[in-house]
Specification:
The chain has a 5-stranded mixed β-sheet with strand order 3-2-1-4-5. It has 11 helices and 5 strands, in the order H-E-E-H-H-H-H-E-H-H-E-E-H-H-H-H. By secondary structure, the protein is an alpha/beta fold. It has one domain: Nucleotidyltransferase, domain 5.
């Protein structure tokens, strides 16, 4: 999870942003994109000190980090948000936001998704998540998605990046925890749909509730099968 960051860090690039989205596919609620710049200096600090003292070769670099208690307890748990339990995600989201150099969260409402389409909305959200960071990142890692308005020389788009890059994984956790919390709030407003359970995704129960009650204000009317049902 640190190899991509370390390759750039060794070249003097320290401000690296990971960007990821949650909620492109659901039938209801917003899409959320987060960007995170982790404090790589702090993460690598113990290994950097050891390397400067003993002349440690690069291939042994990460083994020193893994002996650090704080790393194992927190950074070591950061992974693809789908692979982390809800309880751990909530803890990690707070930890990431408190200890990172900068983070941003962008929401694209269901209404805007219907108006401009998922492709344009994703481009907008990814770009805005980067520009909203308080520090301009020197480099960007995304989970497969290419940001058109940012130079190719400044970004790498990793397939399944949230399982390969700690920066992307951190962004995926922050985005998912934020969106899940929003869907729980919507569940209190529209209790008949069960948004707290399925978070707006097209589960069997959700589809049954849509057929029974119709679409509510946070449903995406351009998404199937809602579009056909309304049509």
């Amino acid at each position: 999870m640190l190899q991509y960051e370390k390759n750039l860090f060794d070249k003097g690039i320290k401000f690296i942003a990971g960007v990821d989205e949650v909620g492109r596919g659901p039938l209801a609620g917003p899409m959320v994109v987060s960007a995170v710049i982790l404090d790589l200096q702090s993460i690598f600090n113990i290994a950097i000190k050891a390397k400067s003292i003993v002349g440690m070769p690069n291939d042994e670099f990460l083994s020193i980090i893994n002996n650090d208690v704080e790393y194992q307890k927190n950074y070591g748990k950061i992974n693809d948000s789908k692979k982390v339990t809800e309880k751990t995600r909530n803890v990690l989201a707070d930890f990431i936001k408190e200890n990172c150099i900068s983070f941003s969260i962008i929401e694209i409402s269901n209404t805007e998704l219907d108006e401009i389409g998922i492709s344009q909305a994703t481009q907008k959200a990814f770009f805005n998540s980067v520009t909203k960071l308080k520090i301009n990142p020197e480099y960007i890692f995304t989970d497969a998605f290419k940001i058109k308005n940012i130079s190719d020389k400044k970004q790498t788009n990793l397939v399944k990046g949230d399982s390969l890059s700690i920066s992307i994984a951190a962004a995926s956790i922050v985005a998912k925890v934020h969106r899940d919390a929003l869907m729980v709030k919507y569940s209190a407003i529209y209790p008949e749909y069960g948004f707290d359970e399925h978070k707006g995704y097209g589960t069997k129960k959700h589809l049954e509730m849509i057929k029974k009650y119709g679409a509510c204000d946070i449903h995406r009317r351009s998404f199937e099968p809602i579009k056909s049902l309304l049509g």
